[in-house]
Amino acid sequence: MDLTFTPKQQAFRAEVRTWLEANVPRERLASYDTREGFEQHRAWERKLHDARLSMVIWPRELGGRGSDLIDWLIFEEEYWRVDAPLRVNQNGQLLLGPTLMEFGTDEQKRCFLPRMASSEDMWAQGWSEPNAGSDMAAIRSKAIRDGDHYVINGQKIWSTRALFADWTFGLFRSDPASERHHGLSYLLVPLDSPGITIRPIKALNGMEAFAEIFFDDVRVPVGNRLGDEGQGWHVAMATAGFERGLLLRSPARFQRTAQRLVELYRAQRAEADRDPSIRDAVLRAWADAEAYMLASYHTVGRMARGAKVGAEASTNKIFWSELDLTMHETAMHILGAKSELLDHGEDSGEIGQWLEGFLFAQAGPIYAGTNEIQRNIIAERMLGLPKS
Amino acid sequence: MDFTFTEDQIAFRDATRRFLMTEAAPEMLREIWETDAGRSPELRAKFASQGLTALSVPEANGGLGFGDVDWALMAQELGYYGIPDSLADTACVAVGLLAGLADDTPGRDTWLERVVAGSIRIAVGHPINPLVADAHLADLLLLHDKGEVHAVPRSAVDVRASQSIDQSRRLGQVTWQPTSATRVADAAKGQGLWADAFDRGALCTAGQLLGLAQRMLDLSVDYVAQRKQFGRPIGSFQAIKHQLADVATRIEFAGPVLYRAAESLANRRAHASVHVSHAKLACAEAAWLAARKGIQVHGAMGYTWEVDLQMFMKRAWALDAAWGDRGFHKTRINDFVLGDGASLGPGRNFME
Fold first, then answer.
1. N or C, which end of chain A is more exposed by having fewer CB within 10 Å?
2. Which residue among B2, B225, B337 places its CB closest to the CB of A286?
3. Does the model's ipTM exceed the 0.95 cut?
4. Does A129 participate in catalysis according to the annotation?
5. Helix (H, G, I), strand (E, B), or coil: what is residue B66?
6. What structural domains does chain A harbor?
7. What is the pLDDT of residues A165-192, one digit of tens each?
C-alpha cells in the first residue's frame, strides 16, 4: 500500500492544473441543454482535446493520451477543482466509447472514436422506449435487414440532448420474431438521416434537455452495426459495469460539491445552526464524498492488479447518486427561503447553482439504471440471492 | 499510488481466516461464553502459534514487525469470527505502547517477547474507556495516570467485574495506586503514547465492526435464501433484497476508509486521527445497519438466543462506543472539517 503520488503523477497533475488555470472559461458557459450552450461546450471539448485532455485513458491513436486510471482520477480532481464546464459528450464517450473499443471493428474504431474524443461528433443515447425503461429487454423498435442496410421503425425516448446531437446509439430488434434479450442488434445512427423526427421533452428545469426520437423507414448501413447481428444485448451489457459505475461520475465531482457545502455552511452558520441536523449533514457530506474517493482509488488499484470489478460497481451508482441528492437537499435547507429563487441578483455568488444542482440531483437515482435496478443487481449478482 | 494490499498481506489474512473458521465456530464461542473466565487459553495459544500475537511486535523482539495496515485486515477477521478475546488490545494496542517506551525501560523487551510467545495477556486502561477489557485475566495492565503510562501487575490492582450484553466482553473497573515503581513513561512521553494507543484501539475496533457487518450480512443472506414463505425463498422478494443491498453498499464504502486510516496511522500522517475517526464512524454505521437489517430479515428467529445472529449483533452494539463513542469521533471530524485551513475538496487527496 503506497498512498503517495509518483513524481510522474505529480508532474501530470501540475501540467493539467497549469493548463486548466490558463484555459478554463472565465465566464460560465450557457447551459448545455440549449443550442447556444451546447455549441459553447462543443468548442470547449475541442480545446480540451487539442491539449489531449478530453479522454485521458483512451489510446493515443484514438484521440486519447494513453494514461492509466490513476491519471484519470488526478485529471478529474484538477478539472473539478476549478469548476471547469460539464462534459457535454459524456454519453457517447463513456457509454458508447468503451463498447466500441471492445466490439468495434478496426474501421469502426478509427471512424468513430477520434471524432468522439474531439466532439466533432456528439452522441445521444437511444436505449429507452416508452415501454422499455428499467425493463430494457422489452425494446420494440425494429431494424429489418434490407440488403446492406437496416430499415429502422420505432421510437426511442429520454435521449439526452438528442435535439442538438449528431448521432445516436442503441438497441433495435433485428429479428422481428424474437423476444426479450434475443434478436437485438446494436446500431449507430446519424441523427440527420431521412425519416428521423426529434421531438424535445422539457425537463424539470424547463430546458429541452432530452428528446424522443421517431424512426420512420430510416436506412442505416450494415457497417453501422456494433458486434454481431442479434448479439446487441450481449454487446450492450458486456462493457464492464465499472465504466457506468465509476467513470460516469468521478469522486472529484462530489468532493467539490461537499467542499462547496462546507463553505456555504460556514458562511451562513448563524442561520443554519437553528436547525441542529444541518451540521451533521454537512459533516456526513464530507465523510461520504471522502469515502467515495477512497473507494475509487481502492478499486482502481485492484483493477491495476488484475481484479475484475463486477456487480459491486452497482454500489457506486447508489452511493454517489444518494450522496449528491443529500448534499443538495442540505444546501437547500441552509439557504432557507432564498433556496427557491431562480434569480438572486448580481451579488449572490453561486447561490443559484445549488437550485440547479438540486434539480439535476433528482435525476441521479433514476438515470443509468434506477437505484432499484442497481439494488436488484447487488442482491442477485453480488450476494447471490434468488431471482424474483 | 497503489491503494491495495500485497499478496503476502492477503495470504496471511486468508490463512488466519481458514484458521478461525475451524477454530472459532459459533458453537465453540457459545461454550466459551458459558465459562466463568469467558476466555479460552487453548484458543489464545493457537493465536500465538498462528503468529497473530507476533504481528506488530518489532523484529528485534522476535516479532513479525508488521503494523497498522496489517491490523486493518486482521481486525476484520477477529470481528467476522466474533473472537471472544481482547487479542487486539494485547497484540496491537499494548504492543504499540510497549514498543514506544524507551528501549531501556525495565520489562519492555520481556513483555514484548512474551506477547510473541502468547504467554502474556495485557489489558489497556485508556481513560476514554470507563472500564478495562479483560482486566480480570490480564497478567499486566498498562494504565493511565495524568498522562503517564504505568505497567501494573494484576496482583496490584483491584478489579470489579461489570457484565456486558455481549458475553464475550469481560469488563472491569480497575482500582490501583500509581507509584514511581509502576511508571514506565512520564507524562511528556506518555501523552503521545496514549494518543497513538487511542487511535490504534479505535482502528482495531473499526476493523472488528466491519468484520461483524460482513458476518451479519452473510448470515442474513444464508437465512433469506433458505427460508420460504408464500412458496418461495424470502430472499427472492425485493423488499428483502433491497435492505441487504443497502448493507452491502455501506460495507463496500467503509472498507477503503478503514484502510486509509490504517495507512495514515502507520505513516504518522498529519490527519491520521481524523482518518481513524472517520473509519470508526463508517464501520460502526455499517455494523449497526447490518444488525438492524439482519434482525429484520431474520424475522422472529433473529430475536432468539438460538440463532447465531445475536452473538454478532451484540458485539457490534457493544463495540460501537468502545475506544470513543460516536460523539467523540464526530467531534474530531467536526473540528477538522469546520476548522480554519482545512484542506478540503479535490486536488488535495493524500497530500497531507
1. C
2. B337
3. yes
4. no
5. coil
6. 7-88 (no CATH), 123-236 (2.40.110.10), 240-382 (1.20.140.10)
7. 999 999 999 999 999 999 999 999 999 9
